User: Fold NUDIX hydrolase from Candidatus Protofrankia californiensis.
Amino acid sequence: MRRLVTLLPIRSARRRGAQLTPPQPRPRGHQRLESLDETARRELAEETGVEAGSLHLEQVGLYSAPDRDPRTPRVITCAYLAIAPNLPSPRAGSDARTARWSPVAETRELRLAFDHNQILADAVELARDQLQFRAIAPAFCQREFTIAELREVFEAVWGVSLDKPNFHRKVTDSPGFLVPTGRKRPTGNGRPATLYRAGPATALVPPMMRPSAPAS
Assistant:
């Protein structure tokens, strides 16, 4: 069963008056003489050990409220969503005590630092929204995957159960979305499953609309 997870670096708590800095839900870092995308990939690799060079990366947004970080007069954050099929054991960065993958559903119960609950919620909603219109779902899978594995991606991100025949028809009818590899994989339940890879399409035609609000 697939689950939507986020990286949760746990940084050493630092006392500020009577306050302790809560956990922060993502790798973070400062920009060098490089693009924002390059910074995001570098920081993800340095802080977690995840190979970020070929990952699908989406900019979530800029967060610039003057009072978002009480420790300093002004901090502007550019948040990114990274999609990865493999999740190796994360390696804590230089400013983190440890790091772990945490199911998104569980992080909703945590009080994260500053406005990081909102950043995480925005990133999850971006992933849910983009699955409807853009051909990004294969980025959650291995290079070759079955329709069942692809369906699990939609179900995990959206938090719903999907009708198997209807899903199969929609994804295979979308022009350029999937390409059959000509290979099959034993499933243990009857016929082997056909393997597919991502096609050249960047958009889903027609869109794969989310059937209902995701589970909370």
About this structure: The chain has two domains: 5-132, 142-198. The chain has five helices and eight strands. The longest helix spans residues 116-133.
